Amino acid sequence: MNAIVHQLLVTADRLLTDAPAAMTAGRYRGAAFALRTALEATVSDALLNAPTGIRHGSTRAKFLCLRSCTEAQTARRAKAVWGLLCLGCHYHQYEIGPTEDQLRLWRSEVGLVIGLLNDSGRAAVC
């Protein structure tokens, strides 16, 4: 895990634990952004040996190509939690933002997926 990903996970943890009652919605959305960015950075690191078009492509394309660098289940889990984080990051007037329970679940899943990607990244080359 690189230093930036580690710092993003620490930031998400702080936003989840240091939230005063009046500011929880904004902090929860900020934690979702930090988690999503950490996951995207890890996926980009896993695709360092991929062709240039993939490395510089969209994040969605990177998640689709992740199956060639890691196990299919890990790639599916990464894409699933990324999709949930994307929904949690976007503000809509008609929706309540992500809850603390959702973010704690997403945090644990992101930590697990990052660990799996780091482990498989050492063994597989795209």
List the helices and strands and how they pair.
Layout: H1 3-17, H2 24-46, H3 52-55, H4 59-65, H5 72-89, H6 100-123
In N-to-C order, the SSE pattern is HHHHHH
Supply the helix-strand structural class: mainly alpha
Distance between the termini: 18 Å
| Residue windows where pLDDT falls under 50 for at least 5 positions | none
Specify the overall morphology: globular
Strand content range: under 5%
| Helix share, percent | over 70%
Rg, rounded, reads 15 Å
What is the total tally of β strands?
0
Q: Compute the number of helices.
A: 6
Average pLDDT reading:
87
Largest sheet: none
Fold and architecture overview:
This protein has 126 residues and is mostly helical. Helices cover 72% and strands 0% of the residues. The chain is globular, with a radius of gyration of 15 Å.
Give the gist of this structure.
The protein has 126 residues and is mostly helical.
Question: What are the main properties of this structure?
Answer:
mainly alpha; 126 residues
